[in-house]
C-alpha cells in the first residue's frame, strides 16, 4: 500500500480519493481523463481545497509559444492560473543545469563574449561585424539554453512542492483515521472484558445445570457464537490497526524523504539564482553587442554615404582637372607656336641675307615658308578656340545680366503690391506679430486689420518692409509698417479653430491630426487660419517655433470671479497658434496629461470661455469659428448668449463631433461655472440631455446652437441618426438634419509620405517597393523578431486599446496570425485598467517570442516604422467614426483588414466584392464583429499573400496611389463655410433693407 501511495503522490497522471467507513479503511485510485489536463486538475483542487494555505511557490516563467486554444486568454480567466505548459525540443535535467552553468562559467573565464566598457568606445569601429554577429548569436543560444534549464528547475520545484503537499494531506487523514481506530480498539477491549466476565458466569451456570443436557446446550451455544464473533471482529480491528501503523510508518519515512527533498529544493533555488545572474549577465552582453552592431551599421552607412560623396567629388575634380589641363596645354602650344614663329622669322631674315648666295638657300626658304604657313593655320585654330572660350564667358556674363534684370523687374513688381511666395511660417509669424502689437496697444485696431489683410494676401510690400527693417528696433519697425497706406481686396475667409488637440504639439487621438491637416489645407486655398489651444505643461514644445508670451493678461469669468490668462503665441508647421495659460488656482492644464482628470468639464469650459474672450479683446472679426468635440462644444451657446451681444457677431459657428460616444454630460451646476444661463438652456429643445433631464449635454447644445454641424464620414453620419448609433442624440440630429453632414477625413500627405519620411531607414514609393522590404527587416531586427523567412507576412496594429476598437478581435488576431504562419506587431496603450492588465499578460507571454511583439505605449517614430514594415494592417473596430489608420496604412503599402462600419466602410472595399468597381477594391472587409467573420477576411488575406505574390504587389501599388489627401475634404468644408457666410450676409442685408 505504501508503494501505491508513493506512486500516486509522485505522479501527475493520477489523483487520489480516500473513502473511510465505520469498519474498514479503503483507499481508491482514479485515473484522470487525459494526461494533458493533469496539471490543470491539480491546480483546480488546490484552489478548491479547504486546508490551510500552502507554502508560496516560486513564480513560474512562461516562455512564449503558440497556445493550444484561444480560450486560455479570455478575460474571464484573469484570476485563474491559466498558464500554458511549455513543450521544448529537449528538456534539461538538474545535471544539465549544472553543466550549462559550468559551460557559462567557462565561457566567461575564456572571455568568449567580451564586455565593451566606456574606455573601449573609440575602438568599436575596429571590431569585425561578423564577429559581433557571432557573439550575439552565441549569447542568444546561451540565453535560450539557460531559460530552458531555469524553467525545468522551476517545474521540478513545483512538482516536489505539490507532492509534498499531497503527502502532508494524506498523513493528516491517516493520523485522524488512526485516532478513530484506537478509540474503537479501546471500546472493543472493554467489550472483551465484559465477555470474559460473561464466560465466567456461564461456566458457573454450566456446573449448576449439567443435568439439563440438550436444552442447556442450546442455551450455551448462543453465547459462544457471540463471543467468537466479537473475538473475530477484535482480531480484524487489530490487524487493521497493524496495517494502519505500517502505513503510518511508511508515510513518516516518505515525510523524511520530503524533508530531504526540501534540501534539494533549496539547492535548486540556489542554482536558479545562479542561472538568473548568468542570464542577466548574458542579457547585458547581448544588449552591448546589439548596441555595437547598431553603431557599426550606422558607421557603415555613414561610411558608404561619405564614400559616395568622395567618389562624386573625385569625379568633379577629375573633370575640372582635365579641363584645366586642356586649357594649360592649349596655352603652352600657343606659346611654343609663338616661339617657333619668332625663330622662323629670325631664320627668314638670315635666309634673306643669303638668298642670292645659293639655290639651296632658296629651297630652304620655300620650305620655311610652308612651315610658317602651317604654323599660322595652327595659330589661327588656337585663336579660334580661345575666341570660343571668350564667347562662352561673354554669354555667361550676358545671362547673369539678364537674371539681374529679371530680379530687378521682380523687385519692382513686388513693390507694386504683387504676392510674394514665402513659406507660411513667415506669414504666420508676421500675423502673430501684428496681433501682439494690437493686444499690447502699440497700434490701432484699423491698422491691425489692414496689416492682417495684407499678410493674409501675401502682399509683397509687407515682405519688403519686414526685410528692410528686421535689423531695426521695434519702434522703427512699427513706424515703417504704419507708412503702408495702400490696401487690396480678397475673397478669402478668416477661420479660427478652437480645440483641445493639435498634432504634433498636443496629440492624443485623431482629432489632433485632423485639426492640423485641415488647417493647412485651408491655408493653402488662400484662407486665413488661426488656432487657439490650451497651454499644457506636457506639450511637445520643440515643435513650436518662436514661442513667446505677450505682455498682457486676458481676464475671463469663471465661478463668479474674473481670472487672468497668459497668452502665448507661436507657429506650428506654418500655422499661427495662440496658447491660453489660465492663472487659476486649480492649475487646469498643469496636470501632466491632456485628458482624464476628474474636473475635465471645468477645465475645458473655462478654456472655451477664455478663447472667446481672447477673440473679443483682440478685436478680431472671424468669418468662421470652428469648435471640435465636447471639450469646446461650450463655444456655441457662449458665443450666441454672451459674446454676440457684445459685438463679436461676425462669425458663423461650425461644430464637428469626431466621436458621439463622448458627450461630456454633467449636472447643470457644473456647466453654469462658465457663465451659461442654465435656466435658459435646461430645455428639451436646447441643452437638456435626452436621457437624463436633470443633466445638460454640451454636444447637444453645440448641435442646437451651431450654424454648421459635421461629423467625420458619410456612413457614420447615417449611423448616428439611428437609435443604435446615436448614443441618445439621434432625435436631436434628425431634428437638425438640414445643417448636419458627414465629410470623410483625409490625412496629411506631407507628414505621411514614405518617399520623404525621415523616420524610415529606407524611403520608397509605389514605383520602387524595395525600400519597403528593407524597412521590414529593419523593424524585425529592432524588435528582435525572426528574419529566417523573408516571405512571412507581417501584420501590424496601431490603436488605443478600448472596447470601441474591438480588443477581443485584436487579441484573437495575435494567435490567428501565428496559426497562419505570420508575424504580429501591436503598438498602443489602454486607459481601461482590466484591458491594460490583460494585454500586459499577453506581452509577457510573448516577450521573447520570435514572431510576436506587443509595445504597450505610443511611439511616434516606431509608428512610422510599423506602417512601412507591415504587409497587412487590422482595424477590427466595433464602430469607427472615420479612422485614419487604414488611410495611413495604404499610403505606406500595407493592405487593410477592416470591419465595414463608419469611415472604414467609406474607405476600404473588399477585393472579392463583385458589386464594387475593380478600380476601387483595396482591402479585405467583414461585417459581424466576431471571430468567425474576422477569420474569413484574415484567412483570405493570408491566402492571397502566399499564393499570388505578383497580385499582392500590384495591390500594394494600387493602394499607395489612392488620394487620401485633405484637398477634397477641405473643399467640402470650404463650400460649407462660404454658404453659411453668404446666408448670414444676405440676412444682414435683408434686415438692413
From TrEMBL:
Q: Which Pfam families match?
A: Glyco_transf_5 (PF08323), Glycos_transf_1 (PF00534)
All copies of the Glycosyl transferase family domain together span 788-943
In terms of one coarse class, where is the protein primarily found? plastid
Indicate the enzyme's highest-level EC class. Answer: transferase
The EC number(s) attached to this protein equal 2.4.1.-
Query: Do you know which Gene3D superfamilies this protein is assigned to?
Result: Glycogen Phosphorylase B
- The entry's keywords: Amyloplast, Chloroplast, Coiled coil, Glycosyltransferase, Plastid, Starch biosynthesis, Transferase, Transit peptide
Which locations, inside or outside the cell, does it occupy? Plastid, Chloroplast; Plastid, Amyloplast
Please name the GO terms of the biological process aspect recorded for this protein, alphabetically. Answer: starch biosynthetic process
Could you give a GO molecular-function term held by this entry? alpha-1,4-glucan glucosyltransferase (ADP-glucose donor) activity
Domain Starch synthase catalytic, chain residue ranges per copy: 494-734
The pathway it acts in is:
Glycan biosynthesis; starch biosynthesis
Q: Which family does it belong to?
A: Belongs to the glycosyltransferase 1 family. Bacterial/plant glycogen synthase subfamily.
Alphabetical list of PANTHER family matching this protein: PTHR46083, STARCH SYNTHASE 4, CHLOROPLASTIC_AMYLOPLASTIC-RELATED
Task: Kindly provide the name given to this protein in its UniProt entry.
Answer: Starch synthase, chloroplastic/amyloplastic
What is the source species? Lactuca virosa
From the broadest rank down, the organism's phylogenetic lineage runs: Eukaryota, Viridiplantae, Streptophyta, Embryophyta, Tracheophyta
Amino acid at each position: 500500500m505504501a508503494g501505491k501511495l508513493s506512486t500516486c503522490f509522485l505522479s501527475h497522471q493520477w489523483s487520489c480519493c480516500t473513502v473511510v467507513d465505520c469498519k474498514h479503511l479503503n483507499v481508491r485510485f482514479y485515473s484522470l481523463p487525459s494526461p494533458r489536463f493533469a496539471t490543470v486538475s491539480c491546480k483546480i483542487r488546490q484552489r478548491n481545497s479547504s486546508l490551510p494555505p500552502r507554502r508560496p511557490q516560486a513564480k513560474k516563467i512562461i516562455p512564449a509559444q503558440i497556445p493550444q486554444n484561444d480560450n486560455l486568454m479570455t478575460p474571464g480567466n484573469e484570476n485563474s492560473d491559466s498558464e500554458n505548459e511549455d513543450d521544448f525540443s529537449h528538456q534539461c535535467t538538474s545535471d544539465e543545469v549544472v553543466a550549462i552553468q559550468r559551460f557559462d562559467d567557462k565561457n566567461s573565464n575564456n572571455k568568449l563574449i567580451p564586455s565593451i566598457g566606456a574606455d573601449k568606445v573609440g575602438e568599436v569601429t575596429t571590431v569585425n561585424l561578423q564577429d559581433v554577429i557571432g557573439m550575439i548569436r552565441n549569447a542568444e543560444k546561451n540565453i535560450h539554453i539557460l531559460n530552458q534549464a531555469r524553467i525545468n528547475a522551476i517545474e521540478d520545484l513545483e512538482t516536489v512542492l505539490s507532492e509534498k503537499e499531497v503527502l502532508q494531506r494524506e498523513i493528516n487523514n491517516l493520523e485522524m483515521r488512526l485516532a478513530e481506530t484506537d478509540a474503537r480498539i479501546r471500546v472493543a477491549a472493554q467489550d472483551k472484558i465484559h465477555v470474559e466476565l460473561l464466560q465466567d458466569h456461564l461456566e458457573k451456570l454450566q456446573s449448576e445445570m449439567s443435568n439439563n443436557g440438550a436444552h442447556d446446550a442450546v442455551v450455551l451455544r448462543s453465547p459462544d457464537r457471540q463471543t467468537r464473533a466479537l473475538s473475530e471482529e477484535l482480531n480484524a480491528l487489530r490487524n487493521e490497526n497493524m496495517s494502519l501503523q505500517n502505513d503510518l510508518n511508511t508515510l513518516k519515512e516518505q515525510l523524511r524523504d520530503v524533508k530531504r527533498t526540501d534540501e534539494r529544493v533549496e539547492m535548486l533555488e540556489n542554482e536558479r539564482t545562479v542561472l538568473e545572474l548568468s542570464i542577466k549577465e548574458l542579457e547585458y552582453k547581448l544588449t552591448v553587442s546589439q548596441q555595437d552592431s547598431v553603431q557599426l551599421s550606422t558607421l557603415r552607412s555613414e561610411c558608404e554615404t561619405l564614400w559616395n560623396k568622395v567618389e562624386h567629388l573625385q569625379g568633379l575634380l577629375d573633370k575640372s582637372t582635365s579641363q584645366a589641363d586642356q586649357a594649360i596645354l592649349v596655352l603652352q602650344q600657343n606659346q611654343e607656336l609663338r616661339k617657333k614663329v619668332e625663330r622662323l622669322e629670325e631664320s627668314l631674315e638670315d635666309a634673306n641675307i643669303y638668298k642670292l648666295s645659293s639655290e639651296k638657300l632658296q629651297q630652304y626658304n620655300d620650305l620655311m615658308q610652308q612651315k610658317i604657313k602651317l604654323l599660322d593655320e595652327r595659330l589661327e585654330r588656337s585663336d579660334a578656340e580661345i575666341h570660343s572660350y571668350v564667347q562662352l564667358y561673354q554669354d555667361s556674363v550676358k545671362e547673369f545680366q539678364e537674371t539681374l534684370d529679371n530680379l530687378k523687374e521682380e523687385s519692382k513688381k513686388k513693390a507694386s503690391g504683387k504676392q510674394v511666395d514665402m513659406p507660411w511660417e513667415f506669414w504666420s509669424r508676421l500675423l502673430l506679430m501684428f496681433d501682439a502689437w494690437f493686444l499690447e496697444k502699440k497700434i490701432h485696431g484699423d491698422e491691425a486689420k489692414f496689416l492682417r489683410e495684407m499678410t493674409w494676401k501675401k502682399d509683397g510690400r509687407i515682405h519688403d518692409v519686414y526685410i528692410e527693417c528686421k535689423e531695426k528696433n521695434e519702434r522703427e519697425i512699427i513706424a515703417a509698417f504704419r507708412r503702408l497706406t495702400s490696401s487690396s481686396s480678397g475673397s478669402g475667409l478668416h477661420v479660427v479653430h478652437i480645440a483641445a488637440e493639435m498634432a504634433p504639439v498636443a496629440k492624443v487621438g485623431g482629432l489632433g491630426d485632423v485639426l492640423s491637416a485641415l488647417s493647412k489645407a485651408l491655408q493653402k486655398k488662400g484662407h486665413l487660419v488661426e488656432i487657439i489651444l490650451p497651454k499644457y505643461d506636457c506639450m511637445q514644445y520643440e515643435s513650436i517655433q518662436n514661442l513667446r508670451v505677450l505682455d498682457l493678461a486676458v481676464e475671463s469669468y469663471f465661478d463668479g470671479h474674473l481670472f487672468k490668462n497668459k497668452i502665448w503665441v507661436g507657429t506650428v508647421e506654418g500655422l499661427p497658434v495662440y496658447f491660453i495659460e489660465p492663472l487659476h488656482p486649480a492649475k487646469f492644464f498643469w496636470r501632466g496629461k491632456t485628458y482624464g482628470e476628474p474636473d475635465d468639464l471645468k477645465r475645458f469650459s473655462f478654456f472655451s470661455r477664455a478663447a472667446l474672450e481672447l477673440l473679443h479683446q483682440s478685436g478680431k472679426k472671424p468669418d468662421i469659428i470652428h469648435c471640435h468635440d465636447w471639450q469646446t462644444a461650450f463655444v456655441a451657446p457662449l458665443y450666441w448668449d454672451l459674446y454676440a451681444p457684445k459685438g463679436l457677431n461676425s462669425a458663423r459657428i461650425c461644430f464637428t463631433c469626431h466621436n458621439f460616444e463622448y458627450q461630456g454630460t454633467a449636472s447643470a451646476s457644473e456647466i453654469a461655472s462658465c457663465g451659461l444661463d442654465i435656466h435658459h438652456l435646461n430645455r428639451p429643445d436646447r441643452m437638456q440631455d435626452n436621457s437624463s433631464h436633470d443633466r445638460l449635454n454640451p454636444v447637444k447644445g453645440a448641435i442646437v446652437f451651431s450654424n454648421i454641424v459635421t461629423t467625420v464620414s458619410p456612413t457614420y453620419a447615417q449611423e448616428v441618426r439611428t437609435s443604435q448609433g446615436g448614443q441618445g442624440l439621434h432625435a436631436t440630429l434628425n431634428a437638425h438634419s438640414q445643417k448636419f453632414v458627414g465629410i470623410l477625413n483625409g490625412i496629411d500627405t506631407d507628414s505621411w509620405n514614405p518617399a520623404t519620411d525621415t523616420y524610415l531607414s529606407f524611403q520608397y514609393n509605389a514605383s520602387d517597393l524595395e525600400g519597403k522590404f528593407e524597412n521590414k527587416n529593419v523593424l524585425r531586427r529592432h524588435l528582435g523578431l525572426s528574419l529566417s523567412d523573408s516571405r512571412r507576412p507581417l501584420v501590424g496594429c496601431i490603436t488605443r486599446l478600448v472596447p470601441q476598437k474591438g480588443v477581443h478581435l485584436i487579441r484573437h488576431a495575435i494567435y490567428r496570425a501565428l496559426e497562419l504562419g505570420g508575424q504580429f506587431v501591436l503598438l498602443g496603450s489602454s486607459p481601461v485598467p482590466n484591458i491594460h492588465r490583460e494585454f500586459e499578460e499577453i506581452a509577457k507571454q510573448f516577450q521573447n517570442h520570435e514572431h510576436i511583439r506587443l509595445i504597450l505605449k505610443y511611439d511616434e517614430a516606431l509608428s512610422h516604422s510599423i506602417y512601412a514594415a507591415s504587409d497587412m494592417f487590422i482595424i477590427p473596430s466595433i464602430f469607427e467614426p472615420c479612422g485614419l489608420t487604414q488611410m495611413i496604412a495604404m499610403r505606406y503599402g500595407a493592405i487593410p483588414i477592416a470591419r465595414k462600419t463608419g469611415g472604414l466602410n467609406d474607405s476600404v472595399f473588399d477585393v472579392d466584392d463583385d458589386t464594387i468597381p475593380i478600380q476601387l477594391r483595396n482591402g479585405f472587409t467583414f461585417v459581424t464583429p466576431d471571430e468567425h467573420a474576422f477569420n474569413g477576411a484574415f484567412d483570405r488575406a493570408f491566402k492571397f499573400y502566399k499564393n499570388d505574390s505578383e497580385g499582392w504587389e500590384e495591390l500594394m501599388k494600387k493602394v499607395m496611389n489612392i488620394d487620401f489627401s485633405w484637398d477634397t475634404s477641405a473643399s467640402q468644408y470650404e463650400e460649407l463655410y462660404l454658404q453659411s457666410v453668404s446666408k448670414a450676409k444676405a440676412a444682414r442685408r435683408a434686415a438692413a433693407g
